[in-house]
Amino acid sequence: QFANAMTRATGRLTRLTGLKRRPIRIRMWAHLGGKLTEICHNRDGTIEQRFKKKAWDYVARKIRDRPKRLSPGQMRGRVLQLFTDLEREDKFPAMIVGFSCRLLNRLAHGIPSVDLTDASQKSYIHRRFEDIRACVGPEWPMFVPLRDMCKRGIGVHHSQQPKFYLELLPDLVRRGMVKAVFATSTLSVGIDLPCRSVVMLSLIRPGKNGFGPVEPNLLKQVMGRAGRPGLETEGNFVLAMWQQPDERVNVKELLFAPSAPCQGNGMVAPREIVTTLLHHKTAEDLLLSPFS
Fold first, then answer.
1. What is the spatial distance between Cα 28 and Cα 258, in angstroms, rounded to a whole number?
2. pTM score, two decimals?
3. Strands 154-157, 180-183: parallel, antiparallel or unpaired by DSSP?
4. Which class for 252: exposed (0-12), middle (13-18), buried (19 or more C-beta within 10 A)?
5. Which pairing describes strands 210-213 and 204-207: parallel, antiparallel, or unpaired?
6. Are 204 and 211 in contact (CB under 8 A)?
7. Between 236 and which of 100, 152, 197, 232 could a Cys-Cys bridge form, CB atoms 3.0 to 4.6 Å apart?
8. What is the pLDDT of residues 243-272, one digit of tens each?
């Protein structure tokens, strides 16, 4: 249906292509705050078929005695350990996904000892921020801490950041200069960022009816950002198992759950049709336009 609609809209034949399976397979890991434990290998089969039951049982035993909540200091320590383990296992660049802008800011600013760039990369990043400085004028002070983080190879991407920074950050990631991006799920379903690993900080997210488990569709979308054809041979999805899992989430069931069908619920108002029709000579032109 989409290919036929594109053919009508553009006047050029559009064909549908694709693969029946993901070309870059994903390995799943649980990070216990000092160790990466593989819970799903990258062989053929579904996630349920590839799941390592013994490894998961080990993880489940380990997290029983973990606290239900972590203090800011404990969270900072876990993030530092995560960076150490990712670097040791050669799993950068990485996207660290959370659902709180405040938490992401605190975590990114709370690890000043982490430095993932060399002198030439720092120099390039400095020049790019100087270009921003020439454009923003009196707003420059808000960019200084963001620049300093980028010069250490760390970025923070969410809707509350300034526009110039959000435009620059993806380019720095693609160039391999920013190796760790703290991001909300908005980035995971939008801008194309090449990353080898995706780290999920929590499986609970805010919604219209309060906090609840992440939807399977969103989880698979976030998970699918790990690994890019032509850049990686495999991707890594890491669950941060730093505290007792929320009782509202069954992690195994969530990982095994199939994606739900997507359906649009939008409606076109008469005013939109009339307004759009003013820009077309005939109704046929309107129906053959991308608007249809």
1. 17
2. 0.83
3. parallel
4. middle
5. antiparallel
6. yes
7. 197
8. 988 888 899 999 999 888 777 666 777 877
